[in-house]
What we know:
Layout: E1 3-6, E2 11-14, E3 18-19, H1 33-45, E4 51-52
Parallel strand pairs: 3-4
Antiparallel strand pairs: 1-2
Amino acid sequence: MQKRKLGKSGMEVSAIGLGCMGMDHAYGKLADRDEMIKLIRRSVELGCNFFDTAVV
């Protein structure tokens, strides 16, 4: 997974992030909790460390 540096801090995040808003609200039927846990864990395995958890 490619990384991107943020500002001057040197902090690196994955170039591809995972939007999490639809996991618990906003887009119709509530997602299955166990499936969402699997999705997050798999994302980490693939190198993702950028998770957008904003509620708006």
